[in-house]
Protein backbone atom coordinates (compact mmCIF):
# COMPACT_ATOMS: atom_id res chain seq x y z
CA UNK A 1 0.00 0.00 0.00
CA UNK A 2 1.42 3.36 -0.94
CA UNK A 3 1.98 5.71 1.96
CA UNK A 4 1.02 9.32 1.42
CA UNK A 5 3.94 11.43 2.46
CA UNK A 6 3.22 15.09 2.92
CA UNK A 7 4.59 16.86 -0.15
CA UNK A 8 8.00 18.38 0.41
CA UNK A 9 7.80 22.06 -0.29
CA UNK A 10 9.94 22.96 -3.29
CA UNK A 11 12.57 25.42 -2.14
CA UNK A 12 11.88 28.68 -3.88
CA UNK A 13 15.02 30.71 -4.57
CA UNK A 14 15.10 34.35 -3.59
CA UNK A 15 17.16 35.45 -6.56
CA UNK A 16 16.06 38.50 -8.48
CA UNK A 17 16.24 39.75 -12.02
CA UNK A 18 18.78 42.28 -10.87
CA UNK A 19 16.90 45.25 -12.28
CA UNK A 20 16.46 47.85 -9.64
CA UNK A 21 13.68 50.34 -10.02
CA UNK A 22 14.31 53.53 -8.06
CA UNK A 23 16.52 53.01 -5.07
CA UNK A 24 17.69 56.44 -4.05
CA UNK A 25 18.96 54.72 -0.88
CA UNK A 26 18.46 57.78 1.16
CA UNK A 27 15.34 59.82 1.05
CA UNK A 28 16.25 63.35 0.15
CA UNK A 29 13.06 65.16 1.03
CA UNK A 30 10.67 63.71 3.61
CA UNK A 31 7.80 63.28 1.14
CA UNK A 32 9.76 60.95 -1.13
CA UNK A 33 9.06 57.93 1.05
CA UNK A 34 6.37 59.23 3.41
CA UNK A 35 3.27 57.34 4.48
CA UNK A 36 0.52 59.94 4.41
CA UNK A 37 -2.82 59.32 6.11
CA UNK A 38 -5.96 60.99 4.79
CA UNK A 39 -8.24 62.41 7.44
CA UNK A 40 -11.72 63.18 6.18
CA UNK A 41 -12.65 65.64 8.92
CA UNK A 42 -16.42 65.09 8.83
CA UNK A 43 -15.98 61.43 9.63
CA UNK A 44 -12.80 61.03 11.66
CA UNK A 45 -13.84 61.98 15.20
CA UNK A 46 -16.47 64.31 16.63
CA UNK A 47 -15.38 66.54 19.49
CA UNK A 48 -18.58 68.51 20.15
CA UNK A 49 -21.26 65.88 19.76
CA UNK A 50 -23.15 67.28 16.75
CA UNK A 51 -22.53 64.08 14.80
CA UNK A 52 -20.05 65.71 12.41
CA UNK A 53 -16.35 65.22 12.90
CA UNK A 54 -14.28 68.30 13.72
CA UNK A 55 -10.77 69.58 14.32
CA UNK A 56 -10.81 69.17 18.12
CA UNK A 57 -11.88 65.56 17.43
CA UNK A 58 -8.78 65.10 15.27
CA UNK A 59 -6.55 66.63 17.94
CA UNK A 60 -7.96 64.24 20.52
CA UNK A 61 -7.10 61.25 18.31
CA UNK A 62 -3.59 62.25 17.22
CA UNK A 63 -2.14 59.50 19.38
CA UNK A 64 -3.96 56.91 17.29
CA UNK A 65 -2.02 58.21 14.32
CA UNK A 66 1.25 58.40 16.17
CA UNK A 67 0.86 54.82 17.35
CA UNK A 68 0.04 53.73 13.83
CA UNK A 69 3.34 55.24 12.75
CA UNK A 70 2.45 57.46 9.80
CA UNK A 71 4.63 60.36 8.65
CA UNK A 72 2.00 62.90 7.71
CA UNK A 73 -1.69 63.65 7.70
CA UNK A 74 -3.61 65.06 4.75
CA UNK A 75 -6.83 66.79 5.78
CA UNK A 76 -9.73 67.04 3.36
CA UNK A 77 -11.30 70.55 3.36
CA UNK A 78 -12.38 72.12 6.64
CA UNK A 79 -12.79 75.66 5.26
CA UNK A 80 -15.92 77.79 5.40
CA UNK A 81 -18.38 76.14 3.11
CA UNK A 82 -22.10 75.54 2.64
CA UNK A 83 -21.11 71.84 2.49
CA UNK A 84 -22.89 71.11 -0.77
CA UNK A 85 -20.00 68.81 -1.70
CA UNK A 86 -18.80 68.02 1.81
CA UNK A 87 -16.47 71.01 1.92
CA UNK A 88 -15.10 70.76 -1.63
CA UNK A 89 -17.19 73.87 -2.21
CA UNK A 90 -15.18 76.56 -0.45
CA UNK A 91 -16.70 79.93 0.46
CA UNK A 92 -13.67 81.29 2.33
CA UNK A 93 -10.24 79.76 1.79
CA UNK A 94 -8.74 81.46 4.84
CA UNK A 95 -11.08 80.35 7.58
CA UNK A 96 -12.27 77.19 9.31
CA UNK A 97 -15.96 76.37 8.99
CA UNK A 98 -17.70 76.67 12.38
CA UNK A 99 -18.83 73.06 11.86
CA UNK A 100 -15.21 72.00 12.25
CA UNK A 101 -13.99 74.57 14.78
CA UNK A 102 -11.87 77.69 14.57
CA UNK A 103 -8.48 78.77 13.28
CA UNK A 104 -7.21 78.42 16.85
CA UNK A 105 -8.40 74.82 16.86
CA UNK A 106 -6.49 74.33 13.63
CA UNK A 107 -3.31 75.79 15.11
CA UNK A 108 -3.64 73.54 18.16
CA UNK A 109 -4.11 70.47 15.98
CA UNK A 110 -1.15 71.44 13.78
CA UNK A 111 1.09 71.96 16.79
CA UNK A 112 -0.06 68.63 18.28
CA UNK A 113 0.76 66.80 15.08
CA UNK A 114 4.16 68.47 14.79
CA UNK A 115 4.99 67.66 18.43
CA UNK A 116 4.31 64.03 17.63
CA UNK A 117 6.61 64.13 14.61
CA UNK A 118 3.82 64.14 12.01
CA UNK A 119 3.51 66.63 9.20
CA UNK A 120 0.22 68.11 8.00
CA UNK A 121 -0.93 68.66 4.42
CA UNK A 122 -4.13 70.58 3.71
CA UNK A 123 -6.47 70.41 0.75
CA UNK A 124 -6.57 73.23 -1.78
CA UNK A 125 -9.60 73.49 -4.07
CA UNK A 126 -8.62 75.85 -6.90
CA UNK A 127 -10.75 74.64 -9.82
CA UNK A 128 -13.95 76.08 -8.42
CA UNK A 129 -15.30 78.01 -5.46
CA UNK A 130 -18.61 77.68 -3.70
CA UNK A 131 -21.45 79.75 -5.14
CA UNK A 132 -21.44 81.43 -1.72
CA UNK A 133 -17.89 82.73 -2.20
CA UNK A 134 -17.85 86.54 -2.22
CA UNK A 135 -16.46 86.58 -5.77
CA UNK A 136 -19.32 84.55 -7.13
CA UNK A 137 -21.88 86.59 -5.24
CA UNK A 138 -20.33 89.72 -6.78
CA UNK A 139 -20.39 88.07 -10.20
CA UNK A 140 -24.08 87.30 -9.88
CA UNK A 141 -24.83 90.87 -8.84
CA UNK A 142 -22.80 92.32 -11.71
CA UNK A 143 -23.71 92.55 -15.40
CA UNK A 144 -22.63 90.29 -18.24
CA UNK A 145 -19.17 91.33 -19.42
CA UNK A 146 -18.28 92.91 -16.07
CA UNK A 147 -14.88 92.39 -14.39
CA UNK A 148 -16.69 90.53 -11.58
CA UNK A 149 -17.92 87.90 -14.02
CA UNK A 150 -14.48 87.56 -15.61
CA UNK A 151 -13.16 85.57 -12.65
CA UNK A 152 -15.53 82.76 -13.55
CA UNK A 153 -16.52 81.21 -16.86
CA UNK A 154 -19.71 83.03 -17.85
CA UNK A 155 -20.84 82.75 -21.47
CA UNK A 156 -23.89 83.55 -23.56
CA UNK A 157 -25.94 80.53 -24.54
CA UNK A 158 -26.50 79.03 -27.96
CA UNK A 159 -29.78 79.12 -29.89
CA UNK A 160 -31.79 82.12 -31.02
CA UNK A 161 -32.46 83.32 -27.48
CA UNK A 162 -29.34 81.88 -25.89
CA UNK A 163 -31.51 79.23 -24.31
CA UNK A 164 -29.05 76.40 -25.00
CA UNK A 165 -25.91 75.94 -22.90
CA UNK A 166 -22.73 77.35 -24.50
CA UNK A 167 -21.40 73.84 -25.18
CA UNK A 168 -22.37 70.23 -24.58
CA UNK A 169 -20.20 69.52 -21.55
CA UNK A 170 -21.61 67.34 -18.81
CA UNK A 171 -20.93 67.72 -15.11
CA UNK A 172 -18.84 64.97 -13.48
CA UNK A 173 -21.72 64.62 -11.05
CA UNK A 174 -24.30 64.25 -13.84
CA UNK A 175 -26.43 66.70 -15.80
CA UNK A 176 -25.26 69.73 -17.76
CA UNK A 177 -22.07 71.50 -16.74
CA UNK A 178 -23.78 74.88 -17.24
CA UNK A 179 -26.39 76.74 -15.22
CA UNK A 180 -28.27 79.77 -16.46
CA UNK A 181 -28.58 82.92 -14.36
CA UNK A 182 -31.61 85.26 -14.49
CA UNK A 183 -30.05 87.70 -16.98
CA UNK A 184 -29.66 84.84 -19.46
CA UNK A 185 -25.93 84.09 -19.22
CA UNK A 186 -24.60 80.68 -18.27
CA UNK A 187 -21.75 79.72 -15.95
CA UNK A 188 -19.62 76.61 -16.12
CA UNK A 189 -19.39 74.07 -13.30
CA UNK A 190 -17.59 70.80 -13.93
CA UNK A 191 -19.10 69.57 -10.65
CA UNK A 192 -22.27 70.70 -8.86
CA UNK A 193 -24.04 73.92 -9.85
CA UNK A 194 -22.98 75.23 -6.42
CA UNK A 195 -19.32 74.88 -7.53
CA UNK A 196 -18.69 77.45 -10.30
CA UNK A 197 -15.37 76.99 -12.14
CA UNK A 198 -12.87 79.81 -11.87
CA UNK A 199 -11.24 81.27 -14.95
CA UNK A 200 -7.54 80.61 -14.48
CA UNK A 201 -6.67 82.96 -17.34
CA UNK A 202 -7.58 85.79 -14.99
CA UNK A 203 -4.51 87.23 -13.22
CA UNK A 204 -6.48 87.99 -10.06
CA UNK A 205 -7.37 84.31 -9.68
CA UNK A 206 -3.69 83.45 -9.86
CA UNK A 207 -2.56 86.01 -7.30
CA UNK A 208 -5.41 85.13 -4.98
CA UNK A 209 -4.40 81.46 -4.81
CA UNK A 210 -0.72 82.23 -4.37
CA UNK A 211 -1.82 84.33 -1.45
CA UNK A 212 -3.97 81.50 -0.06
CA UNK A 213 -0.95 79.20 -0.29
CA UNK A 214 1.10 81.69 1.71
CA UNK A 215 -1.66 82.06 4.30
CA UNK A 216 -1.46 78.36 5.19
CA UNK A 217 2.30 78.06 4.70
CA UNK A 218 2.75 80.93 7.17
CA UNK A 219 0.60 79.01 9.66
CA UNK A 220 3.02 76.11 9.29
CA UNK A 221 1.38 73.54 7.03
CA UNK A 222 3.75 71.14 5.29
CA UNK A 223 2.03 71.01 1.94
CA UNK A 224 -1.12 70.89 -0.14
CA UNK A 225 -3.17 68.25 -1.85
CA UNK A 226 -4.42 69.99 -4.97
CA UNK A 227 -8.00 69.12 -5.90
CA UNK A 228 -8.80 68.45 -9.57
CA UNK A 229 -5.29 69.51 -10.48
CA UNK A 230 -5.84 68.53 -14.11
CA UNK A 231 -8.96 70.65 -14.56
CA UNK A 232 -8.10 74.25 -13.95
CA UNK A 233 -7.36 75.28 -17.52
CA UNK A 234 -9.88 74.58 -20.28
CA UNK A 235 -9.19 74.37 -24.00
CA UNK A 236 -9.45 77.65 -25.88
CA UNK A 237 -12.97 78.24 -27.16
CA UNK A 238 -14.50 75.58 -24.89
CA UNK A 239 -15.21 73.20 -27.80
CA UNK A 240 -17.90 70.52 -27.61
CA UNK A 241 -16.77 67.10 -26.45
CA UNK A 242 -18.31 63.84 -27.45
CA UNK A 243 -16.44 61.70 -24.97
CA UNK A 244 -17.53 60.39 -21.65
CA UNK A 245 -16.65 62.75 -18.81
CA UNK A 246 -15.45 61.02 -15.69
CA UNK A 247 -12.79 61.59 -13.09
CA UNK A 248 -12.37 58.06 -11.90
CA UNK A 249 -11.99 56.08 -15.09
CA UNK A 250 -9.98 58.77 -16.76
CA UNK A 251 -12.79 59.54 -19.19
CA UNK A 252 -12.82 58.37 -22.74
CA UNK A 253 -13.71 59.63 -26.11
CA UNK A 254 -15.89 57.98 -28.70
CA UNK A 255 -14.12 59.73 -31.51
CA UNK A 256 -10.49 59.71 -30.44
CA UNK A 257 -8.46 56.53 -30.59
CA UNK A 258 -6.52 55.45 -27.54
CA UNK A 259 -2.81 56.11 -27.56
CA UNK A 260 -1.09 53.04 -29.02
CA UNK A 261 1.88 53.70 -26.74
CA UNK A 262 -0.22 53.53 -23.57
CA UNK A 263 -1.10 49.93 -22.77
CA UNK A 264 2.11 49.00 -20.91
CA UNK A 265 0.85 50.64 -17.75
CA UNK A 266 -2.47 48.90 -17.89
CA UNK A 267 -4.26 52.21 -18.11
CA UNK A 268 -7.38 52.85 -20.10
CA UNK A 269 -7.01 56.48 -21.04
CA UNK A 270 -5.26 58.07 -23.94
CA UNK A 271 -3.75 61.10 -22.36
CA UNK A 272 -6.65 62.97 -23.85
CA UNK A 273 -9.40 63.52 -21.39
CA UNK A 274 -11.26 66.14 -23.34
CA UNK A 275 -11.06 69.92 -23.50
CA UNK A 276 -11.74 70.31 -19.76
CA UNK A 277 -8.86 68.22 -18.47
CA UNK A 278 -5.09 67.91 -18.67
CA UNK A 279 -4.49 71.02 -20.76
CA UNK A 280 -0.94 72.26 -21.20
CA UNK A 281 -1.74 75.52 -19.39
CA UNK A 282 -2.05 73.89 -15.96
CA UNK A 283 1.69 73.29 -15.77
CA UNK A 284 2.54 76.96 -15.71
CA UNK A 285 0.39 77.31 -12.58
CA UNK A 286 2.28 74.55 -10.80
CA UNK A 287 5.62 76.04 -11.77
CA UNK A 288 4.60 79.26 -10.07
CA UNK A 289 3.34 77.44 -6.97
CA UNK A 290 6.55 75.47 -6.81
CA UNK A 291 8.35 78.79 -6.48
CA UNK A 292 6.03 79.92 -3.71
CA UNK A 293 6.73 76.76 -1.68
CA UNK A 294 10.45 76.93 -2.39
CA UNK A 295 10.51 80.22 -0.51
CA UNK A 296 9.74 78.32 2.70
CA UNK A 297 11.91 75.92 4.68
CA UNK A 298 11.07 72.31 5.43
CA UNK A 299 10.56 70.79 1.98
CA UNK A 300 6.90 71.70 1.71
CA UNK A 301 5.13 69.78 -1.00
CA UNK A 302 2.31 69.77 -3.52
CA UNK A 303 0.44 66.61 -4.40
CA UNK A 304 -1.74 66.46 -7.49
CA UNK A 305 -5.16 64.91 -7.57
CA UNK A 306 -5.06 64.44 -11.32
CA UNK A 307 -7.02 61.59 -12.87
CA UNK A 308 -4.69 61.51 -15.84
CA UNK A 309 -3.53 58.52 -17.81
CA UNK A 310 -1.24 57.07 -19.01
CA UNK A 311 1.30 57.39 -16.22
CA UNK A 312 3.81 59.02 -18.53
CA UNK A 313 1.29 61.83 -18.96
CA UNK A 314 0.70 62.07 -15.20
CA UNK A 315 4.47 62.29 -14.64
CA UNK A 316 4.40 65.68 -16.34
CA UNK A 317 2.74 67.06 -13.18
CA UNK A 318 5.76 66.07 -11.10
CA UNK A 319 8.57 67.37 -13.24
CA UNK A 320 11.33 68.90 -11.11
CA UNK A 321 9.90 72.43 -11.14
CA UNK A 322 6.21 71.52 -10.72
CA UNK A 323 4.41 69.46 -8.10
CA UNK A 324 6.19 66.96 -5.90
CA UNK A 325 3.80 64.03 -5.98
CA UNK A 326 0.70 62.88 -7.84
CA UNK A 327 -1.73 60.23 -6.68
CA UNK A 328 -1.24 57.01 -8.57
CA UNK A 329 -4.82 56.25 -9.54
CA UNK A 330 -3.64 53.79 -12.18
CA UNK A 331 -2.51 51.62 -9.27
CA UNK A 332 -5.77 52.14 -7.38
CA UNK A 333 -7.83 51.13 -10.39
CA UNK A 334 -5.82 47.99 -11.19
CA UNK A 335 -7.66 44.72 -10.70
CA UNK A 336 -6.53 42.03 -8.24
CA UNK A 337 -4.40 40.42 -10.89
CA UNK A 338 -0.69 39.63 -10.64
CA UNK A 339 0.32 40.47 -14.19
CA UNK A 340 -1.69 43.70 -14.22
CA UNK A 341 -0.17 44.80 -10.91
CA UNK A 342 3.38 44.10 -12.09
CA UNK A 343 2.63 46.09 -15.23
CA UNK A 344 1.34 49.12 -13.37
CA UNK A 345 4.17 49.02 -10.82
CA UNK A 346 6.75 48.84 -13.60
CA UNK A 347 5.09 51.62 -15.56
CA UNK A 348 4.86 53.79 -12.44
CA UNK A 349 8.59 53.57 -11.79
CA UNK A 350 9.44 54.03 -15.43
CA UNK A 351 7.32 57.17 -15.75
CA UNK A 352 8.47 58.79 -12.54
CA UNK A 353 12.14 57.82 -12.84
CA UNK A 354 12.12 59.83 -16.07
CA UNK A 355 11.33 63.00 -14.15
CA UNK A 356 13.07 62.16 -10.87
CA UNK A 357 9.87 62.09 -8.81
CA UNK A 358 8.90 59.44 -6.29
CA UNK A 359 6.08 57.10 -7.14
CA UNK A 360 3.05 57.11 -4.89
CA UNK A 361 0.68 54.29 -4.05
CA UNK A 362 -2.92 54.45 -2.95
CA UNK A 363 -5.78 51.98 -2.60
CA UNK A 364 -8.63 53.99 -1.08
CA UNK A 365 -9.85 57.53 -0.60
CA UNK A 366 -13.07 59.45 0.00
CA UNK A 367 -14.14 59.21 -3.65
CA UNK A 368 -13.98 55.47 -4.29
CA UNK A 369 -15.38 52.30 -2.76
CA UNK A 370 -13.10 51.19 0.09
CA UNK A 371 -10.67 48.50 -1.03
CA UNK A 372 -11.81 46.05 1.66
CA UNK A 373 -15.15 46.03 -0.16
CA UNK A 374 -13.96 46.52 -3.73
CA UNK A 375 -11.80 43.43 -3.54
CA UNK A 376 -14.69 41.38 -2.17
CA UNK A 377 -17.22 42.32 -4.84
CA UNK A 378 -18.19 39.72 -7.41
CA UNK A 379 -16.91 42.10 -10.09
CA UNK A 380 -14.06 43.87 -8.34
CA UNK A 381 -13.72 46.89 -10.57
CA UNK A 382 -13.22 50.30 -9.04
CA UNK A 383 -16.94 50.89 -8.46
CA UNK A 384 -16.42 54.63 -8.18
CA UNK A 385 -20.08 55.25 -7.78
CA UNK A 386 -20.83 53.29 -4.67
CA UNK A 387 -22.84 50.17 -4.01
CA UNK A 388 -26.63 50.06 -3.58
CA UNK A 389 -28.31 47.66 -1.13
CA UNK A 390 -29.86 45.91 -4.15
CA UNK A 391 -26.49 45.41 -5.90
CA UNK A 392 -24.55 42.17 -5.57
CA UNK A 393 -23.05 42.46 -2.10
CA UNK A 394 -19.38 41.96 -1.27
CA UNK A 395 -17.94 38.89 0.40
CA UNK A 396 -16.75 40.65 3.55
CA UNK A 397 -14.24 38.06 4.62
CA UNK A 398 -12.66 37.69 1.18
CA UNK A 399 -12.56 41.47 0.78
CA UNK A 400 -10.77 41.94 4.08
CA UNK A 401 -8.28 39.16 3.40
CA UNK A 402 -7.43 40.64 0.02
CA UNK A 403 -7.37 44.18 1.35
CA UNK A 404 -4.82 43.23 3.99
CA UNK A 405 -2.75 41.44 1.34
CA UNK A 406 -3.01 44.41 -1.03
CA UNK A 407 -2.00 46.88 1.68
CA UNK A 408 1.00 44.81 2.70
CA UNK A 409 2.07 44.57 -0.92
CA UNK A 410 1.68 48.34 -1.32
CA UNK A 411 3.59 49.17 1.87
CA UNK A 412 6.54 47.06 0.69
CA UNK A 413 6.98 49.16 -2.43
CA UNK A 414 9.56 51.93 -2.58
CA UNK A 415 7.95 55.35 -2.84
CA UNK A 416 5.34 57.20 -0.86
CA UNK A 417 2.03 55.62 0.21
CA UNK A 418 -1.35 57.14 0.99
CA UNK A 419 -3.76 55.58 3.47
CA UNK A 420 -7.41 56.50 3.86
CA UNK A 421 -8.80 56.77 7.37
CA UNK A 422 -10.31 53.51 8.55
CA UNK A 423 -8.37 51.24 6.23
CA UNK A 424 -6.01 50.56 9.14
CA UNK A 425 -9.07 49.05 10.84
CA UNK A 426 -10.01 47.03 7.75
CA UNK A 427 -13.25 49.01 7.42
CA UNK A 428 -15.62 48.00 4.67
CA UNK A 429 -17.83 50.33 2.67
CA UNK A 430 -21.39 50.83 3.92
CA UNK A 431 -23.14 49.02 1.07
CA UNK A 432 -26.68 48.89 2.46
CA UNK A 433 -27.23 52.56 3.15
CA UNK A 434 -30.81 53.70 2.51
CA UNK A 435 -31.18 56.35 -0.18
CA UNK A 436 -32.93 58.78 2.21
CA UNK A 437 -29.72 59.40 4.14
CA UNK A 438 -27.38 59.87 1.20
CA UNK A 439 -25.72 63.28 0.85
CA UNK A 440 -23.38 63.04 -2.14
CA UNK A 441 -24.40 65.50 -4.90
CA UNK A 442 -23.41 62.79 -7.38
CA UNK A 443 -26.38 60.74 -6.16
CA UNK A 444 -28.87 63.56 -6.64
CA UNK A 445 -27.54 64.90 -9.91
CA UNK A 446 -27.87 61.45 -11.47
CA UNK A 447 -31.42 61.24 -10.09
CA UNK A 448 -30.41 58.33 -7.94
CA UNK A 449 -28.82 56.30 -10.74
CA UNK A 450 -25.51 56.32 -8.88
CA UNK A 451 -25.24 55.41 -5.22
CA UNK A 452 -22.55 58.04 -4.71
CA UNK A 453 -19.61 58.21 -2.37
CA UNK A 454 -21.32 58.28 1.04
CA UNK A 455 -20.56 54.61 1.68
CA UNK A 456 -16.84 55.26 2.11
CA UNK A 457 -17.39 58.39 4.23
CA UNK A 458 -19.15 56.86 7.22
CA UNK A 459 -17.99 58.05 10.68
CA UNK A 460 -15.22 55.90 12.14
CA UNK A 461 -15.86 53.40 14.93
CA UNK A 462 -13.54 54.04 17.87
CA UNK A 463 -15.25 52.09 20.69
CA UNK A 464 -17.26 48.92 20.15
CA UNK A 465 -19.53 49.44 23.15
CA UNK A 466 -20.31 53.13 22.90
CA UNK A 467 -23.21 54.78 21.07
CA UNK A 468 -22.14 55.68 17.53
CA UNK A 469 -19.21 53.33 18.21
CA UNK A 470 -17.47 56.16 20.02
CA UNK A 471 -17.43 58.57 17.07
CA UNK A 472 -18.36 61.42 19.40
CA UNK A 473 -19.69 62.12 22.87
CA UNK A 474 -23.40 61.87 21.98
CA UNK A 475 -23.57 58.89 19.66
CA UNK A 476 -24.81 61.07 16.80
CA UNK A 477 -23.30 60.37 13.37
CA UNK A 478 -24.04 62.36 10.19
CA UNK A 479 -24.29 59.13 8.21
CA UNK A 480 -25.46 55.86 9.73
CA UNK A 481 -22.81 53.27 10.55
CA UNK A 482 -23.40 49.65 9.54
CA UNK A 483 -23.64 47.20 12.43
CA UNK A 484 -20.50 45.48 11.23
CA UNK A 485 -18.52 48.54 12.39
CA UNK A 486 -18.77 47.24 15.95
CA UNK A 487 -16.33 44.46 15.16
CA UNK A 488 -13.92 46.84 13.48
CA UNK A 489 -13.84 49.42 16.30
CA UNK A 490 -10.33 50.67 17.05
CA UNK A 491 -10.47 49.65 20.73
CA UNK A 492 -11.05 46.02 19.78
CA UNK A 493 -7.86 46.05 17.69
CA UNK A 494 -5.24 47.87 19.77
CA UNK A 495 -2.61 45.43 20.97
CA UNK A 496 -4.51 42.47 19.50
CA UNK A 497 -2.28 40.12 17.60
CA UNK A 498 -3.41 39.69 14.03
CA UNK A 499 -5.76 42.70 14.05
CA UNK A 500 -5.66 44.90 10.99
CA UNK A 501 -4.49 47.85 13.09
CA UNK A 502 -1.54 45.85 14.44
CA UNK A 503 -0.74 44.59 10.94
CA UNK A 504 -0.52 48.15 9.61
CA UNK A 505 1.46 49.26 12.65
CA UNK A 506 3.98 46.44 12.24
CA UNK A 507 4.23 47.09 8.51
CA UNK A 508 4.86 50.79 8.99
CA UNK A 509 7.46 50.13 11.68
CA UNK A 510 9.34 47.61 9.51
CA UNK A 511 9.02 49.83 6.47
CA UNK A 512 10.76 52.53 8.46
CA UNK A 513 13.49 50.42 10.07
CA UNK A 514 14.26 48.56 6.83
CA UNK A 515 14.17 51.75 4.75
CA UNK A 516 11.69 50.21 2.30
CA UNK A 517 10.21 53.56 1.28
CA UNK A 518 13.53 54.66 -0.18
CA UNK A 519 14.75 51.24 -1.23
CA UNK A 520 14.81 49.72 -4.69
CA UNK A 521 12.63 47.07 -6.28
CA UNK A 522 13.82 44.04 -8.21
CA UNK A 523 11.52 41.20 -9.27
CA UNK A 524 12.03 37.75 -7.77
CA UNK A 525 12.97 35.32 -10.56
CA UNK A 526 10.78 32.55 -9.23
CA UNK A 527 7.61 34.48 -9.95
CA UNK A 528 8.73 36.98 -12.57
CA UNK A 529 5.95 36.01 -14.99
CA UNK A 530 3.60 34.27 -12.59
CA UNK A 531 -0.12 34.71 -13.17
CA UNK A 532 -0.66 34.15 -9.43
CA UNK A 533 2.10 35.86 -7.51
CA UNK A 534 3.62 39.33 -7.34
CA UNK A 535 7.04 39.03 -5.72
CA UNK A 536 9.89 41.47 -5.40
CA UNK A 537 12.87 42.24 -3.25
CA UNK A 538 13.41 45.60 -1.63
CA UNK A 539 16.52 46.13 0.50
CA UNK A 540 16.85 42.52 1.57
CA UNK A 541 13.15 42.11 2.26
CA UNK A 542 11.22 39.86 -0.10
CA UNK A 543 7.58 40.81 -0.56
CA UNK A 544 5.52 37.90 -1.87
CA UNK A 545 1.81 38.35 -2.58
CA UNK A 546 -0.30 35.37 -3.58
CA UNK A 547 -3.31 36.62 -5.53
CA UNK A 548 -4.55 33.19 -6.56
CA UNK A 549 -7.12 31.00 -4.88
CA UNK A 550 -4.64 28.26 -3.94
CA UNK A 551 -1.58 28.21 -1.70
CA UNK A 552 1.92 28.57 -3.16
CA UNK A 553 5.24 27.34 -1.74
CA UNK A 554 7.28 29.89 0.14
CA UNK A 555 11.04 30.29 0.05
CA UNK A 556 12.85 28.96 3.08
CA UNK A 557 13.29 32.33 4.73
CA UNK A 558 12.48 34.16 7.93
CA UNK A 559 8.93 35.50 7.90
CA UNK A 560 8.92 39.10 9.07
CA UNK A 561 5.22 39.77 8.67
CA UNK A 562 2.22 38.27 6.92
CA UNK A 563 -1.22 39.62 6.11
CA UNK A 564 -2.88 36.41 7.31
CA UNK A 565 -2.04 33.17 9.07
CA UNK A 566 0.65 31.14 7.28
CA UNK A 567 0.67 27.40 6.99
CA UNK A 568 3.92 25.48 7.10
CA UNK A 569 6.07 26.55 4.20
CA UNK A 570 3.18 27.78 2.12
CA UNK A 571 1.56 31.11 1.46
CA UNK A 572 -2.24 30.76 1.45
CA UNK A 573 -4.52 32.33 -1.15
CA UNK A 574 -4.91 36.13 -1.03
CA UNK A 575 -2.06 36.56 1.42
CA UNK A 576 1.13 38.62 1.36
CA UNK A 577 4.28 37.87 3.35
CA UNK A 578 7.42 39.87 3.99
CA UNK A 579 10.46 37.61 4.25
CA UNK A 580 14.13 38.03 4.92
CA UNK A 581 16.23 35.83 2.67
C1 LIG B 1 -12.14 65.97 -6.03
C2 LIG B 1 -12.51 65.54 -4.63
C3 LIG B 1 -13.96 65.19 -4.61
C4 LIG B 1 -14.76 66.41 -5.00
C5 LIG B 1 -14.30 66.96 -6.34
C6 LIG B 1 -14.83 68.35 -6.56
O1 LIG B 1 -12.24 64.92 -6.91
O2 LIG B 1 -11.68 64.50 -4.22
O3 LIG B 1 -14.36 64.71 -3.38
O4 LIG B 1 -16.12 66.10 -5.06
O5 LIG B 1 -12.92 67.05 -6.43
O6 LIG B 1 -14.15 69.26 -5.76
Q: Let me know the largest β-sheet.
A: 8 strands, parallel
Order of strands, main sheet, comes to 12-11-10-6-3-2-14-13
Class from helix and strand fractions: alpha/beta
Number of strands: 21
Percent of residues in beta strands: 5-15%
Query: Which ions, cofactors or small ligands are bound in this entry?
Result: alpha-D-glucopyranose
Our measurement of the CA-to-CA distance between the termini, rounded to an integer number of angstroms, reads 39 Å
Rg over CA atoms: 24 Å
Low-confidence stretches: 250-270
Q: What is the overall pLDDT average?
A: 92
Number of helices: 14
What level of helicity do the residues show? 10-25%
Amino acid sequence: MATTEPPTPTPVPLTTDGTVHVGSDTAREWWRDAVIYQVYPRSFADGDGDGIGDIPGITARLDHLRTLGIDAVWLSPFYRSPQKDAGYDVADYRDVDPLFGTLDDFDTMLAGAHERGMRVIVDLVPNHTSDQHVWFQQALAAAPGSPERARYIFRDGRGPAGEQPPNNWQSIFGGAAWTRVPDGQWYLHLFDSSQPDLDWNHPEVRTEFEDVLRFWLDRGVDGFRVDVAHGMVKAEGLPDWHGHVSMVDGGSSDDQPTDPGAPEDGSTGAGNQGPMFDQEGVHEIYRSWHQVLAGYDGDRCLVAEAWVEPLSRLARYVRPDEMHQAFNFSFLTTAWDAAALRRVIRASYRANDEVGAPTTWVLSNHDVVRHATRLGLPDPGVRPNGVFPGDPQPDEELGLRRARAASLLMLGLPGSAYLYQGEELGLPEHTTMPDEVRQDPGHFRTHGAEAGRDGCRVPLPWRADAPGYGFGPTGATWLPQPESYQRYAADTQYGVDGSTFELYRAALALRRTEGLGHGGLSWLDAWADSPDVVAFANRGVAVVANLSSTAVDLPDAEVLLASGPLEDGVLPADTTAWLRG
